[in-house]
Design brief:
The protein is α+β, with helices and mostly antiparallel strands and 428 residues long. The strands form two sheets. Strands 1, 2, 3, 4, 5, 6, 7, 8, 9 and 12 form a ten-stranded antiparallel β-sheet that branches. It has a two-stranded antiparallel ribbon with strand order 10-11. It contains seven helices and twelve strands.
Length: 428
């Protein structure tokens, strides 16, 4: 009879534990549903913004096919500003969504932790009670109580408690595994939040730069088409002179390429999330038209202003700079030069914002800058020059074509330039 009462007390305790959990679960469910509704709304807002951004990009692509004029340049800058403003709104919505996701995950972690604690308490109570039963003298209990029915009830209750403990242990294992997964997802979400906040700050800098560029262009041309065409002609002449000067200098550099020091194909990853090649390496129809040398020393990718740019492999940043400070519109503009650990090096040119520092170690996929329209361009895009690391280096030299001013940029013998497409993943 004593054991029967003890088991009755145990079941009452377990019932109270479950009863205590129930209001928390309902409250948790309400919170999760509310958060999920808000997350769904943010997803809808994000989808709408992405459609608007795509519409502006379509307009920009259309403008890119038009003849160069002051009106075209101003329209491009205005459309770019509108698109960048939407990019900022999009990033903010993603930040809001990520914050809601973290709040939802935190509630989930708290709920799982509470259930784990309650399960642990339930298991502990059950183990104590069964231990008491197993330590008792069953024969003595039978002789003292003299009632087989009560003894069988006690034994039946003990079996029930054992089954309850077994179920609690199984659930506890599952919950702990689920809790670890949720914690890992939360860490990922928090890292994403940090990256989004950094991106937002960068986008705000780029939109200021866009406004300054428009004001500068209007001031230089005095909002006059004839003045713009004159400025454009001068820049093209200076670009061709600088390109020839650099090409002649690189042609004199002696270098014997050792293929054994180069990696196999496909070792690099794409520098952008979305890939569209606009200009291949070497001699092409476009390279003969666009470059005085008749050849293109890199690969160009379509990329709107402010697109995140990523390192193509692990490596070290050996140089960053802005050739526009020496020769406006004559070369890379803002660039990042990285030496990878696989025998290759690359320069990313025409950036709007540099995110890396000289001497910095970078990982594959790490954002090192944002694409733009600086240097010698006919529109926003990313230029990638690839070299054999054994031959390329940062160099400083006075430029006759730029009034004797000192330029500093990566320089390599002509035969050290490589076709980046061979080392990048296959195009799909």
């Amino acid at each position: 009879m004593k054991l029967y009462l003890a088991y009755k007390k145990l079941f009452n305790v377990l019932f109270l534990i479950i009863l205590g959990i129930t209001p928390t679960l309902f409250s948790y469910a309400d919170t999760i549903i509310d958060l999920q509704i808000q997350i769904n709304q943010k997803n809808s807002d994000i989808g709408n913004l992405e459609e608007e951004i795509m519409a502006y990009q379509t307009q920009l692509d259309g403008l890119g096919k038009q003849k160069n004029s002051l009106n075209k340049s101003i329209q491009e800058l205005d459309l770019t500003k509108k698109k960048l403003t939407l990019d900022i709104s999009l990033t903010q919505k993603k930040i809001d969504k990520t914050n809601l996701t973290i709040a939802s995950l935190s509630s989930d972690i708290s709920d799982k932790q509470n259930i784990i604690n309650n399960n642990t308490e339930s298991i502990a109570i059950g183990l104590r009670q069964t231990n008491e039963f197993e330590q008792s003298n069953i024969v003595g209990t039978l002789l003292s109580e003299g009632d087989f029915t009560i003894m069988w009830n006690d034994l039946d209750n003990m079996v029930s408690v054992h089954e309850s403990i077994r179920k609690d242990i199984v659930e506890l294992k599952q919950l702990k595994g689920s809790l670890e997964n949720t914690k890992n997802i939360t860490v990922t979400a928090k890292n994403e939040l940090t990256a989004l906040k950094s991106k937002l700050a960068d986008q705000q800098k780029i939109i200021v730069q866009n406004t300054n560029e428009k004001n500068k262009l209007l001031k230089q041309t005095k909002n006059n088409e004839a003045n713009y065409q004159k400025l454009l002609k001068e820049r093209i002449a200076q670009r061709d002179a600088f390109e020839k000067e650099l090409r002649d200098y690189e042609a004199k550099l002696q270098f014997i390429l050792d293929p054994s020091k180069l990696p196999s194909s496909g070792v690099l990853s794409w520098p952008l999330d979305k890939i569209y090649v606009t200009q291949l390496f070497g001699k092409t129809v476009d390279s003969k038209r666009l470059y005085a040398s008749g050849t293109h020393n890199g690969v160009d990718f379509r990329a709107s202003m402010g697109t995140p740019l990523m390192a193509m492999a692990d490596g070290v940043v050996l140089g960053v700079g802005d050739t526009d400070t020496t020769c406006q519109g004559a070369s890379f503009g803002k660039f990042v030069f990285i030496q990878y650990s696989n025998g290759l090096s690359s320069t990313f040119g025409h950036l709007s914002l540099i995110k890396a520092n000289e001497g910095q170690k970078v990982k594959r996929g790490e954002v090192v800058g944002y694409t733009g329209n600086t240097g010698h361009t006919t529109g926003p895009h990313l230029h990638v020059s690839l070299y054999a690391s054994q031959a390329v280096k940062m160099d400083s030299k006075a430029s006759a074509s730029c009034g004797g001013r000192i330029y500093r940029l990566p320089v390599a013998p002509i035969n050290a330039y490589l076709d980046a497409m061979y080392y990048l993943p296959p195009l799909r």
